[in-house]
Amino acid sequence: MTTGFGERYGPWALVAGASDGLGAAFGRAIAARGLSVVLVARSADKLEALAEEIRSEHGVEARPVVQDLGSPDLVDALEEKTAGLEVGLVVYNAGLSIIGPFLDQPLENHLETLQVNCRGPLALTHHYGRPMARRGRGGIVLMSSLAGFQGSALVASYSASKAFDLVLGESLWEELREQGVDVLSCCAGATRTPNYIASEPVHGRLKAPEMEPEEVVEEALASLGSRACVVAGSGNRLLGFILHRLMPRSLAVRIMGASMRRMYPSSRS
Length: 269
Ligand SMILES: NC(=O)c1ccc[n+]([C@@H]2O[C@H](COP(=O)([O-])OP(=O)(O)OC[C@H]3O[C@@H](n4cnc5c(N)ncnc54)[C@H](OP(=O)(O)O)[C@@H]3O)[C@@H](O)[C@H]2O)c1
Hints:
This protein has 269 residues and is of the alpha/beta class. It is built from 10 helices and 7 strands. It has helices at 4-9, 21-32, 44-58, 74-81, 107-135, 156-176, 194-198, 213-223, 234-246, 249-263, and strands at 12-16, 36-41, 62-66, 87-92, 138-145, 181-188, 229-231. A 7-stranded parallel beta sheet has the order 3-2-1-4-5-6-7, sandwiched between helices.
């Protein structure tokens, strides 16, 4: 079935970081809208299982692609693995999030965060954005985070990388709209993905609002084409409004830092 969504963003979508959590939810939701999907991640087994599920549930094609998004030859490798496919939608979902004191981490960990969270989305947006602009249609979704709106202790390089994704997406929303390419930065708050659950956050009395991956994905796909940035979830929008509109920036940074230290007590220096 070709839908308005399929005509605008089909016939193929590529989801980078697709084997579980938000990425798998993007893959399923996009396939449910009639697009075939390229599913990119490192875990071959999970990708194969998801591709099989998507084919049988939605009757579209699904191609698993095993690829490290932090690899220096990312663009060449994906060009080869998606040769001949008309990719009209790219979702860059993967995000490396190392929690702990900045100076205690080896520099390599911070640089890897930049590779996966900044270089990857920049490179794929450039590579797949060019043919989209030539065709005069297409979509790009970059996953950012509430952590991208201000600095935050214990996740300094992650937080800075998510600010990069947020501003890259917003900038290109304005720049590429005249060429028919819709770009969206999606800022999620706490989302119950395997990665988030495995981080074992400790919740006090003031628990941050949590969302399911499917809820975040539906808000993102509904916002693509109409806005530059979506903060998923009304609780997160309220939190964002209080932190970013009502408070001085330094106070918001202090509050985020205190909240991270409470949530991850074993990561404190
Ligand atoms: N979960 C939250 O609470 C939350 C909150 C705010 C923002 N976000 C953002 O939402 C996005 C998704 O988060 P998530 O919690 O689902 O976890 P995630 O760890 O960012 O994403 C998991 C997916 O990305 C893949 N991936 C990770 N690193 C990769 C690499 N180097 N190469 C290829 N694939 C890679 C993983 O598969 P493999 O391990 O198989 O490669 C998996 O499919 C991220 O950008 C994150 O910053 C999440």
